[in-house]
Amino acid sequence: MKKSLLISFFIMICLSGCGKIELNNAAIPTAFGTDFKDNRIVIATQIAKPVSPGTSAGNGPQFSVISASGRTFSEASRNTSLSFAAVPLWSQVQVSLMSDTMAKRGIADQIDFLIRNRFVRKSNTLVVTKNTTPQQVLSIVAYLETYTGMAIMKLIKNQESQLGIYTQTDLYEFLQKLSEPGIEPVVPMITIQKNGRDKQLLLQDTAVFKGSKMIGSLNETESRGYSLLNPGKKTLGLFLVSSPPNPEQKVTLEISSLQSKVRPMIQDQNIKMLIELSIDGNFYEQSGTENLFTPKVYKMIEKAAEQELKRQMTLAIVKAQSLNSDIFGWGKLVYKKDPHLWQQVEEDWDALFPSIPYEIKVDFTLRRSYLTDKSVVLR
Amino acid sequence: MRYLSNKDGPARKPAAEDLIDLPLSTELQDNLANMRTLLQSCSDAVVKEFSFGNPATRASLFYFDGLINKQQIETHLLKPLLLELNMMQDQDTLSWQNEPDLLDKIQDKILSLAEVKRLSSFQEICHHIASGDTVLLIDGCTQGLVAGTRSWEGRPIQAPENEVTVFGPKEGFNETLRFNTAILRRRLKSTRLKIDSLVLGRISKTDVVVCYIEGIAPPELVKEVTARLNNIDIDAILDTGYLAELIADHKWTLFTQTEHTEKPDRVCGQLLEGKVCIMADGTSMALVLPISFPEYMISPEDYYIHFIPASLFRMLRLSAFLLALLLPSLYVALISYHHEMIPTPLLLTIAATRQNVPFPAFLEALIMEATFELLREAGLRLPRAVGPAVSIVGALIIGDAAVRAGLVSTPMVVVVAFTGIASFVSPSYNAGIVIRIARFGFLFASGLLGFLGIVIALLLMMIRMASLSSFGLPYLSPMAPLNLRQMTDIIVRRPWFKNFQRPYWEGMTDQTRQQHVNEKGVNNE
Q1: What is the C-alpha to C-alpha distance for residues B207 and B460, in angstroms, rounded to an integer?
Q2: Which band of pLDDT confidence, cut at 50, 70 and 90, is reported for residue A316?
Q3: Do A53 and B352 touch (CB under 8 A)?
Q4: Beta carbons of A52 and B355 less than 8 Å apart
Q5: More confident residue, B168 or A8
């Protein structure tokens, strides 16, 4: 009895239990990206170099980017071990990149790999690299951030709450949109901005998918229109309108609350989308010095804001219809409204979607201007 | 008067054990001879022979030096017999016909002592003189007189060092049983406070008392406690710890089923909830029973301060208990099995500090925990003068040098230090011991299976605790079996103005603590 206890104690110390990875043998990836090159799949991983608190970090980036290629994703990721002597803890990854070549090729196999892999979090933010490769993006040392992966993550999150242009998409959401009929996924894109010798990250455009293939992209205004139309997400952020008394000047408005309702109107098998937005906004900035705080001008500003928002949304819809990708989930809305009708049109939805008529109604209410009403009068 | 010396040499008569059962003889000489045999080699025993009265009557006095108040004997026993008796004019007092008459007269009319009683066997004589009484044997009498003259140097009443409170009474028990019962009686000035006495230990003859409040404590409980105490046959009782182990329901377990305390206010509080307290002479530790595990988290201070902070402190204490029990094992499980549960920046920091540590996390935790226990145990035993020096060296070595040498990682030091502090939060030393030992069990479990192991170990511990009882009280009550009314005084402290009833258990009759009065002061019942 005593002997067996002693033996089991030593076994416990010498052998590790299942799933046990000592931190000394582990590496912490902060992001990874996939690329398609010479018919092989390339996986680039950014591995953090932990620096003890109190010791100086030294020069250069505090991470290394290692890449490995293979015929499949599993092979490529396992091949990482050929050049890297530690077990990557994939569960720490928060951002998954893919190159635009990869996205255009189709990412069904990548999604399959990520979903099957029990270590990868389904809450990973997806990003498509534009005109560059994930390896190059991950090699950039971002301003103030130690690790590029986290920098991309924060970049997307912050602009979403401050500007409301690009919509964050995680792996789970992507998968959901991929597997549901009547809705297509979009993924924000990132590129490298060259500023002399300095290279920095820049969020630019939104990749539009159809099925598992990227078929085009939305520019900034269209992306903003998409985020206004994207059901289920609160979009805030700033936008500009021309100042009514003086169209040369600009007025900046902020959306403080937004309620959107997108309904399909079905009449005699004809589908029309009715988009109603009720928005509360705040006055944020004016470039001129006129007094805009009169009821009359207020009304005019509200009108101009409605026009502007309507324009943004229309652009997004036009682009989506021209790409023939139902990124707004209209098909899903039709299914919810009238499942029988959806059964009839599902087969032809691709042919139907580009020509679906729509009507946008925006009700913008200017609420307040915080503590300042009149602009500073220059004398 | 002389001290008995061992003039006959070291050879002892084996008859001493038989002698003690004999009755007293009429001949003082015989009695004296027997007593001398019994008191052989007891250098602190004093035998004084003298004669008094007219006609002169031989008498002898026995006591143990150091246990008696000598002045009391001199002024109230020897002086009346040797001096005042001769000066008395009353002829009736000066003469006697027979033995009972003589003893009556001495006991009632001559001796000016508060406590005098008669005894008639060597057994009793020995017990009394060893307890600090003085025995007077008179020629021609088959009974002796015993005078209560107990008096010895004891520790003054001090604040208990191990149970420190900010609010509330500071005094603590000391080693003299009589003082301790007096402290209790002073707090509960009622004859309903019963203090049953019994003598345990063949050699030590320790006075043990069972205290309870009549009408509150269930009579069956008192009966059971007394019966179990009477079953004990042991040579000596040096501390109530002996009793706790001897009378426990479940003996083969880490979880103690009695509460040890030195605080009279704590004992009184428990007595008022229907519990029974056992105290023994020669120790300042009182036992309170029955006790359930959740009650270990209660400090008497909770009842002296406002109920809101008291409740918050109690919750803090409960969480500290869990932390002290689980923190090292949670840490080990997290960093060797469940990395995904640690936020990336924190994981990076931990990974950085662990880069050069040669041991697996489990072994590292084990070494650190063992070292901490070692320091703690050493700190208890160290002479006061060396104590601080050793703790400084210990802290420096463990906290700094070991980290710099790369033997342990800094987060581990933080975890162990935090655990150490959390384990001191428990108001009961007994519960603290359970935590300290069980912590290692959890550490092994987490080293083997991660969170799964911790959950298994927790389940096993809960199963074991649920199967225990303390004098019939389930060990996890009022959590299991669930008693919601009592739960309001376990997790939080019930405010006094809502505290109408004592916690109930089997056999308790008087549950009313306060008359049920509503806020306007009107009786609701």
Answers
A1: 40
A2: very high
A3: yes
A4: yes
A5: B168
Sheet with B116-119: strands ordered across: B2-3, B45-52, B57-64, B134-138, B144-147, B116-119
Q: How do the domains of chain B map onto residue ranges?
A: 2-147, 154-291+495-525, 306-474
Average of per-residue pLDDT across B218-239 = 93
| Alpha carbon distance A91, A121 (integer Å) | 6
CB of A58 within 8 Å of a chain B CB? The answer is no
| pLDDT band with cut points at 50, 70 and 90 for residue B1 | very low
Beta pairing class for A63-70 and B286-289: unpaired
d(CA A293, CA A299): 10
| Cα three-residue angle B115-B121-B124, rounded to 5 degrees | 50
The amino acid at residue B62 is: F
Does A19 lie at the interface with B, CB-CB under 8 angstroms?
yes
DSSP string over B422-464: HHT--S-HHHHHHHHHHHHHHHHHHHHHTHHHHHHHHHHHHHH
Q: Which residues 116-175 of A have a C-beta within 8 angstroms of B?
A: 119, 121, 150
Q: What's this model's pTM, rounded to 2 decimal places?
A: 0.84
ipTM of the modeled complex? 0.83
The helix/strand/coil state of A114 is helix
Interatomic CA distance for residues A279 and B108, integer angstroms: 106
Could you tell me whether strands B259-261 and B206-213 are parallel, antiparallel, or unpaired per DSSP bridges?
A: unpaired
Q: In Å, how far are A44, A124, A126, A147, A167 from A134, measured between CA atoms?
A: 7, 15, 12, 14, 20
Residue B501 neighbours by CB under 8 Å, 6+ apart:
B485, B511, B512, B513
**Both tokens of residue A119?**
């270590």
Mean pLDDT for A288-298 is: 80
Closest to B305 in 3D by CA, of B115, B519, B91, B496: B496
Largest CA distance in chain A: 96
Angle among Cα A246, A247, A250 to the nearest 5 degrees reads 95
Hey, how many other C-beta atoms are within 10 angstroms of the C-beta on B233? 9
Q: Nearest-CA distance from A120 to chain B in Å?
A: 10
Token pair recorded at residue B303: 């009842």
Secondary structure of residue B121 in the 3-state scheme: strand
Task: Take residue A128 and report the two structure tokens written for it.
Answer: 């498509």
What is the three-class DSSP state of B24?
coil
Are the beta carbons of B426 and B317 closer than 8 angstroms? yes
CA-CA distances (angstroms) from residue A19 to A119, B89, B452?
A: 11, 103, 12
Say if CB B99 and CB B116 are below 8 A apart: no
Instruction: Please check whether residue B311 is in contact with residue B493, taking contact to mean a CB–CB distance below 8 angstroms.
Output: yes
Domains and CATH numbers, chain A: 231-370 (3.30.300.210)
Q: Name the burial class of residue A263, with classes exposed (0-12), middle (13-18) and buried (19+) by CB atoms within 10 angstroms of its CB.
A: middle
Burial of A354 (0-12, 13-18, 19+ CB in 10 A): middle
Are B299 and B430 in contact by the 8 Å Cβ rule? The answer is no
Q: What is the C-alpha to C-alpha distance for residues A173 and A119, in angstroms, rounded to an integer?
A: 18
Residue B289 buriedness (CB in 10 A; 0-12 / 13-18 / 19+): buried
A24/chain B closest Cα distance in angstroms: 6
Judge contact between B459 and B279, C-beta under 8 A. no
- Separation CA A146–CA A152 (nearest Å): 11
Judge residue A181's burial from the number of C-beta atoms within 10 Å of its C-beta, 0-12 exposed, 13-18 middle, 19 or more buried. Answer: exposed
The alpha-carbon gap from A94 to the nearest alpha carbon of chain B, in Å, equals 9
Question: Which DSSP letter does residue B109 get?
Answer: I
B225: Cβ contacts below 8 Å, ≥ 6 apart: B210, B247, B276, B278, B289, B471
Q: Which amino acid is at A292?
A: L
Q: Is the pLDDT of residue B522 over 70?
A: no
